[in-house]
Amino acid sequence: MWRRYRSTRQKAACERLLEELCGRALVREAEDLVETVWIEGLDRAEHADPTVRLILERERASFLRASRKRSAEADKDQRRMAAATAEMVQLTRTGPPAD
Question: Is the pTM of this model over 0.85?
Answer without folding.
Answer: no
